[in-house]
Amino acid sequence: YTGATPLGLMKFEHTTTANWDLILGSVNGSLGETSGLIILLGGAYLAWKNFLNWRIPASIFLSVAVLAGALHALDTARYPSPVFMLFSGGLMLGAVFMATDMVTSPVTNRGCWIFGIGIGILVVVIRIWGGLSEGVMYAILLMNALVPFINRATQPRVFGTGVKVHHR
Q: pTM for the complete prediction?
């Protein structure tokens, strides 16, 4: 049967969904929106087998939890809880399977932290203040555009070389 997703209900009708329903996936939505616990288990397995860099989803989850928690502490009636923000929508699927794509994610560990934190902040900003109820895909795309700059800024310096000085 069909119905509004939890993010749609929160954004447009100002009603939240029970946390356990979100975690267990007993809510309306597509597969990537309703099975957060299974996605986390799959992501843990992939990280254990070194098929993905665990720093990216960890930094996304951490930044979403911190920012959503701070907003929720400011006004509990206006801003959803961190658990709601983590387990609603496509955040789990995006953080574990989309953002960790080896071709479009940063190459350094420090770059992965920056990349993930940027995605997490953008997700919360788009969800709370944007015109859309979901923002994971856009956040990942925006941060993917910044990956070359993140890679350049976080690339370690080769031992024995100094900073390039351009002479005229």
A: 0.85
